[in-house]
Amino acid sequence: MVKKEFSALELTKAFLDEIDKSNEKIFAFLTVTRDSALSQAKRIDDLISAGQDLPLLAGIPLAVKDNIMVEGARCTASSKILEEYIAPYDATVIKKLKEQGIVILGKTNLDEFAMGASTENSAFGPTRNPHDLSRVPGGSSGGSAAAVAGNLSVCALGSDTGGSIRQPASFCGAVGLKPTYGAVSRYGLIAMASSLDQIGPITKTAQDAALVFEAIEGKDEKDSTSVNSKIKNQKSKLEFKIQNLRIGVPKEYFMKGMDKEVEKTVKNAINKLEEAGAEVREVSLPYSTDYALAAYYIIMPSEVSANLARYDGIKYGYSSPAAKNLMEVYSKSRGEGFGKEVKRRIMFGTYALSSGYYEAYYLRAQKVRTKIIEDFNRVFKSVDVIATPTAPTTAFKLGDKTKDPLSMYLADIFVTAVNLAGLPAISLPCGKIQGLPVGLQIIGRHFEEDKVLKLGEIFEKL
């Protein structure tokens, strides 16, 4: 762009044309912000013409998951209850990216309120995998992953509560980074489970993920859980040699019932890292494999139950016209506005928090969470990073798991422990099986995104 080989406006128009052509079949975007995207791009061209120095992200088209606020644009969280809701302000990550001059193309589809592993739970219809339109793109950030994989955007933002960036990145053959909990502000993200949610990038390469992450990370006074990374700005200083790297491979992650071809592809990827000079060790994460999914599906719905209480048909969002009194405003608005999966999780969570069950379920799950954190801390004493499959299978067919919620939940088996422990992790494309991508997950210590991203760059070169 700076060399004027093409303009920001031409680049943005090319992606908008691709969205016009392909979005109907992929359905990655719920809202396309064409006019504001073109005016943002024109502004960048004017600054280039004026000879101004610009950040690397200036003029680059971005897609945004539709649970992250972009001022003046619809923000639905793919739910009927927020179908007409217009965001009154920018999320902190959007504010930071706008300061970088990024061009926002629109808002992408997701599982309703980010609850799902396939983007089939959207109130507005499912997204399809660009590699095979009969298959799911993964979830809940399926629209963002499909937008990047289908060349409808250069990069995208997603949110990851229990694998919702990494699993769709794996299914769509993109790079997905889930940062350390607290590394990126959650201000302006529609809350699902506040102790687990984290915003992160979905991109084509690890280097692109690093650029977007560096633009959005850091403490924010509007989010008390955000922190200044201890290793901030050390990416360039990091003397990274793969020969000095110790990679832990948890034996429990290669389990019975896992797709044999996926296992083979991931093991081949780990062998490539070993051949390049890394030391690969077998490690054990017993709590993470045996109990993470169970603990996650008690803690997450409990927080969902509390967070979604705000959709009462009064303050904002859908309000049932059929309600005759206050109790009916609540019950009918929520009954008509929420989808099946959202209702299921609210009921799970309310039950787990209810009198007499709190200690038996929620409190016990939190104790297991502590054990999972201890599991990772113990392993990280002897290794620098952990390598695992991102998902046990490749992308499954649309409709395959919708009738069996439990089998859908199992799609997240390798990714939920990372959220419970608050660790950073990246999913990298590591091969294909019959044209369908497979993801390799690299997990790092808290705030060691630089190491995880650098290893991602090295792996891509291999």
The number of strands is: 11
Number of helices: 14
The protein's oligomeric status is: single chain
Q: For this structure, what is the CATH class?
A: Alpha Beta
Shape type: globular
Assigned CATH architecture:
Alpha-Beta Complex
Q: Which regions contain 5 or more consecutive residues with pLDDT less than 50?
A: none
Helix fraction, binned, reads 25-40%
Q: Give the overall average pLDDT.
A: 95
User: Which fold name corresponds to the CATH topology?
Assistant: Amidase signature (AS) enzymes
Strand order of the largest sheet: 1-3-2-4-6-5-10-11-9-7-8
Q: Identify the CATH homologous superfamily.
A: Amidase signature (AS) domain
In terms of DSSP E residues, the strand content is: 5-15%
Describe the model.
- It is built from 14 helices and eleven strands.
- The protein is of the alpha/beta class and 462 residues long.
- The protein has a single domain, classed as Alpha-Beta Complex (Amidase signature (AS) enzymes).
- The chain has an eleven-stranded mixed beta sheet, sandwiched between helices.
- The longest helix is centred in the middle third of the chain and has 22 residues, at 286-307.
- The radius of gyration is 21 Å and the shape is globular.
- The relative contact order is 0.14.
